[in-house]
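Predict the 3D structure for this chain.
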Amino acid sequence: MSRILLRTRIKFCGMTRAGDVRLAGELGVDAVGFIFAAGSPRRVEPEEARAMRNALAPLVNAVAVFRNNDGDSVREVVRQVRPSLLQFHGEEDDAFCRSFGIPYIKAVPMGGPMALDATGLRLKFPSASGFLFDSHGGDAQPGSGSAFDWKRIPPGLDLPFFVAGGLDPDNVFNAALGTLPWGVDTCSGIESAPGIKDGDRMRRFVQEVRRADCTDLPERNSGD
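Done. Predicted structure below.
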């Protein structure tokens, strides 16, 4: 079966510099993420994200990333940054996530035991536009650069899902073919230091995703 007509979406997260945002758009990335979670080395203030948003190319989405932020801080980000999508990484429930009137995706921690299957996720977050499977959970924090076993992604999910956690130019080809996600999300995998993106790694990451998009499905098992 050919995948020539399928396209894996790409999100670069943890943006801290307007030049990196601009390059992401030039490379054809679909979305960039601005992190507002306390304790993250890539955390930015709403004013900083608003300025970087001006560097966005047309048709590139701004995603606001939170982890257990209070409602007032989320509303302030929404007011200043005008994100097209919200991403929640903490213990937020569906009522909180949907209360801001913007589509949201919920991060699912894969660093510990999997608590919910596909049906359970849909029941717990009925308003979610999609899910992001990340390697946080247990002792692992978001943005740690570690991967999880992609085979643990629950089958039968009828919403778009993203794969994150430890993705870089060297493994994203296998991740894209091995999971067939709606999109892939990377942060530390394209950096030279926390928050400082590396242009060459950004380019290679996009190239490897596009190579996977043009690869027939049988090659998933070829060991490439």
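The mean pLDDT is 90.
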